[in-house]
Design a protein that fits this description.
Distance between the termini: 9 Å
Structural class: alpha/beta
Helix content: 10-25%
CATH architecture: 3-Layer(aba) Sandwich
Shape: globular
Mean pLDDT: 92
CATH superfamily: P-loop containing nucleotide triphosphate hydrolases
Largest sheet: 7 strands, mixed
Number of strands: 7
Number of domains: 1
CATH class: Alpha Beta
CATH topology: Rossmann fold
Strand content: 25-35%
Length: 145
Amino acid sequence: MKYVSESLEETKEIAKNFLNSISDSEYATVVTLEGNLGAGKTAFAQAVGELLEVKEGLRSPTFVIEKIYQIDFKNFKRLIHIDAYRLEKESELLHLGWEEIIKEPENLILIEWPENVAAIIPESAKVIKFRFVDEATREIELISL
């Protein structure tokens, strides 16, 4: 499903549609957020955080790589936001406990820049692609949900 967003409110509505589409699984739900700088990945993740009532406000974890938020949504207990932009190889994410967090079905994982750690992204990962159209417009495509 492809959407065009011309505002943060429209991005929030797309995030709401995404959240309504996901369900429990045997393992963590991994969602890759793919697109160039400024394409809307972090804005989308922030909208997800807001909808899931993350109290501390979701911010990009570019420098800390990973942030974990407590949530109560469907059977999810943790929203894990990962920014792999600065990672040069998969082993860096493995050192953060990647193999353990993807086994836990109560984890909803949003990962920006998944191409930097592509070899360890599960095949079951859901894919959302973002494209910068102009200063006010983004194209958001929910691919494998």
